[in-house]
Amino acid sequence: MNEMRPIEPELGALEMLGAVERKLLWLAAWMIHNANHLRPNRDGLKVGGHQASCASVTSIMTALYFEILRPYDRVAVKPHAGPVLHAINYLFGRQTVEQMAGLRQFGGAQAYPSRAKDGAEIDFSTGSVGLGVALTSFASLMDDYVRAHHMLPPGTPRGRKVAIAGDAELDEGNIYEALLEGWKHDVRDVWWVVDYNRQSLDSVMPDRLFGRFEGLFRDMGWKVVSLKYGRRLQAAFARPGGASLRGWVDECQNSMYSALTFQGGAAWRQAILADMGKSRTVRAIIDPLSDDELASLMTNLAGHDLGTLTEAFRAAAKSDQPTVFLAYTIKGMGLPFAGHKDNHAGMMTVEQMEAYRKALGIREGHEWDRFEGLPSPGAVERFVRGVPYAMPLSPTGRRLLAEPVPLPEKLPQPRITGRRMSTQGGFGEILSEIGRAQGESAALSKRIVTMSPDVAVSTNLGPWINRRGVFDRHTRDDVFRDGKLASGQRCGTNPEGQHIELGIAEQNLFLLLGAAGLSHDLTGARLLPIGTVYDPFVNRGHDALFYSCYQDARFLLISTPSGITLAPEGGQHQATNTPLLAIVQDKLASYEPAYCDELAILLRHAFEHMQKPDGSAVWLRLSTQLLTQPERALSAADVIAGAHWVVPPEAGAPIAILYQGAVAAEAEKAFAILREDIKGAGLLAVTSPDRLYAGWRAAQRRRRAGEAASSHIESLLSALDESAVLVSVLDGHPAAHAWLGGVRGSRIMSLGPDRFGQSGDIIDLYREYEIDADAILEACAEALLPPR
Ligand SMILES: Cc1ncc(C[n+]2csc(CCOP(=O)(O)OP(=O)(O)O)c2C)c(N)n1
Ligand SMILES: [Mg+2]
Fold first, then answer.
1. Does residue 201 line the site of ligand 1, with CB under 6 A?
2. How far is the CA of 236 from the centre of ligand 2 (A)?
3. How far is 225 from 355, CA to CA, in rounded Å?
4. Which of 93, 145, 424, 714 could crosslink 622 through cysteines, CB 3.0-4.6 Å?
5. What whole-number distance in Å separates Cα of residue 254 and Cα of residue 231?
6. Binding site membership of 125 for ligand 1 (Cβ less than 6 Å)
7. Atom 17 (ligand 1): residue with closest C-alpha?
8. Is 195 a pocket residue for ligand 1 (Cβ < 6 Å)?
9. Which of 80, 84, 550 to mutate to test the pocket of ligand 1 (most atoms within 8 A of CB)?
10. Closest to 690 (Cα-Cα) out of 647, 664, 661
11. From ligand 1's centre to the CA of 344, what distance in Å?
12. Phi, psi torsion values for 155, nearest 5 degrees
């Protein structure tokens, strides 16, 4: 027998979106509720979640994802709307109910959208507010880059880069750095949709701030679309007395508006009548309305009006001008704590959730059902299936696929043996040689794109740039060259150029590296991005570096000059902490070569490692210290694994000197003297404490799992006597090496500047901070004495 199917009412386009919006709001709230109230809590810690932040942006996200966005568009969603995004992907069939129910749990959906942990449906990870927003602008620049270099199949649609931002994100300085840089590069097809609920975490925004935003964005060449009132409020304003009502709402302070929203219709009426009770026309608008109807009218802001939103987005889509939408919203809209200033981490009670479930017609036990409780579930399901944005871009969903760039066995390189060179100089020369390649052999050089925050020439990118040119969508003349004015550096721009010149703001460098380092996934064109920066100013961009690594972006960071070895540059530029940052940063393999033969091995390795599915970004810390380049045979595998014996110890040797980077010559000098007394001593070159440490930890893990495993550092140190002592030295904080004593339980003296800020030449500074040959010998003597 055929089952009788209920006849479903026809839904109009906006009703359909309204049904989806209701479902998303429910699912987001339910995910958070489930995580906090229904799952066993083993450690008693609050789980958390942001129902109010989700409710604030649900209409905006419904309009975008279900009506406006197209598959090639890429979106960064404000961190606290993670559950709404998960719910959207769930409706699209790209998210499992187990992941949803596991929100914030080990293996479950992430609190904030994460490319690495949530998978292919997430375009950009977010979390540290402001960075995801700015990243969209740099992603647009990289889209321009790969198009200008003809790296995409013909006809590939150009996607828009969209940030769905919280209004507090506009307080972050990196937003304005990115706006300036975006203006310089004339970025286009970028939308920032601001969920303008005038609330952040603990505070309500100062009034009239929107006026500042409008001016700032306009000055940067953006279109500003202010979406303040919904269609019902606009209709009320158009009636006799409406202008007074509008004036009253316009003047209503943010905190007052929020409080009235929370209190509801009776409070609205009282407040309006207190100010305009004598106006018959105003009364004619509000008197016929019930309290609930009045509350609904007064909170009819454009950011919750699907018709206003879709219309505004469609109109803006006609141009490629970057556009900011200031969409007025109410934090917690539709939920019991709407408008309350303390609602950021507020959560519905079990009773409130129960009432909400019943009001939506969702049966108990069917809370996760995709279309449960909707007016025309079948029609909504068909609609969702046909949404353009839901179309996959590749067999892996929203990730595009890009073949790795083939690498030569050895990188082209200049003659180095016997010359006095620095690693920074060597880097410039090797890159210049790579840049010389033409035709068939240019596969590698074509995919390299360099970028630097105003320090390109002083980090030795000059020769590469002279060969490959500076990128800009627009060709600009080289005024100096055309005027025959002497300059070693070309400065015109053209769309074929392969260097992107940035202003001095380092966060922008790391965000651009992030965007370029995701190009293979986001555009389908694989790039090998190289960013150069002064080593101390890695600190200035560190949050953005951390963020780009968190996204698993693949790039090569060159930080140079580094440490106190940049001596005459001044004390403020002496960073001692960067070798430690290099060890602790996940998804970033870090090295500090001393000589250019090691550097050549590591550069090739970097290009390979950046492209491996289980690889990562790579960081090379370089120096301006001149060293006479040795002639020797090196094991590339050892250099890549993090250390190699320059002089292997003799069996049973009681001591070894370990050095890293620019201090090599001091270590060699001390070692020559040490060997006069202790014949069997060894000299170990450390190219990466980061890789050594990672290898040691991995071996420990494998041994705990019952495997026989040894790490590179364990194998190297096993050449020494069991009671041998170690003396290590680097131009960086000595804690970067101190752990090496733990590998075999060896006594270790680690030398390195743990203070900074003194100007001088290298001789004075190495003495002052105890990393010269004398200090190394003193440490050897102390190490060999019996422990006190
Ligand atoms: C860099 C950074 N600082 C602080 C936080 C903690 N935090 C999370 S959300 C938030 C306020 C967000 O307000 P808003 O962007 O307006 O979002 P909404 O009101 O929509 O929740 C803060 C301060 C963070 N995530 N990142
Ligand atoms: Mg806010």
1. yes
2. 27
3. 37
4. 424
5. 21
6. no
7. 166
8. yes
9. 80
10. 661
11. 9
12. 85, 0
pLDDT 10s digits, 477-535: 876 667 666 666 677 899 999 999 999 999 999 999 999 999 999 999 999 999 999 99
Q: Answer yes or no: is the C-beta of 171 below 6 A from any ligand 1 atom.
A: no
DSSP string, 663-689: GHHHHHHHHHHHHHH-TT-EEEEES-H
Q: Tell me the two tokens of residue 80.
A: 């606290």
Compute the average pLDDT of residues 738-745.
97
The CB-side HSE value for 189 (13 A sphere, CA atoms) comes to: 18
Nearest ligand, measured from the Cα of 80: 1
CA distance 772 to 757: 18
- Whole-angstrom CA distances from 205 to 168, 253, 353 are 8, 10, 29
Least confident of 190-204, 270-284, 298-312, 678-692: 190-204
Q: Write out the two tokens for 788.
A: 């006190």
User: What is the biggest distance separating any 2 CA atoms in the chain, rounded to whole angstroms?
Assistant: 105
Q: Which ligand is nearest to the CA of 50?
A: 1
Ligand 2 center–CA 195 separation, angstroms: 7
Q: How far does the centroid of ligand 1 lie from the alpha carbon of residue 202, in Å?
A: 9
Q: How far is the CA of 69 from the centre of ligand 1 (A)?
A: 25
583 lines ligand 1 (CB under 6 A): no
134-177 residue pLDDT tens: 999 999 999 999 999 999 999 999 999 999 999 999 999 999 99
Q: Ligand 1, from 201, 209, 347: best to mutate by most atoms within 8 Å of Cβ?
A: 201
pLDDT level of residue 211 (50, 70, 90 thresholds): confident
Q: Ligand 1 pocket, 82 CB below 6 A?
A: no
**167 Cβ below 6 A of ligand 1:** yes
DSSP class of residue 596? H
Distance CA 471, CA 481 (A): 17
- ∠ at Cα 593 (588, 596), nearest 5°? 125
How far apart are the C-alpha atoms of 9 and 736, rounded to whole Å?
A: 68
Q: For residues 25 and 386, is the Cβ–Cβ distance under 8 A?
A: no
Instruction: Indicate the Cα dihedral angle 143, 145, 149, 154, nearest 10°.
Output: 20
Give the orientation angle of helix 13-33 with respect to helix 51-63, to 10 degrees.
150
Q: Cα dihedral sign for 640, 642, 645, 651? A: negative
Q: Is 41 within 8 Å of 90 (Cβ atoms)?
A: no
Question: Which residue from 486, 478, 488, 480 is spatially nearest to 456, judged by alpha carbons?
Answer: 488
Name, in order, each residue with C-beta under 8 angstroms of 421's C-beta and a sequence gap of 6 or more: 429, 596, 626, 627, 629
Dihedral sign computed on CA atoms, order 597, 425, 772, 619: negative
The residue ranking higher by pLDDT, 435 or 2, is 435
Q: Ligand 1 within 6 A of 303 CB?
A: no
* Of the candidates 750, 718, 715, 752, the residue with the CA atom closest to the CA atom of residue 733: 752
The atom of ligand 1 lying closest to the CA of 57 is: 20
Look at ligand 1, atom 8, and give the residue with the nearest C-alpha: 201
Q: Whose CA is nearest to atom 21 of ligand 1?
A: 53
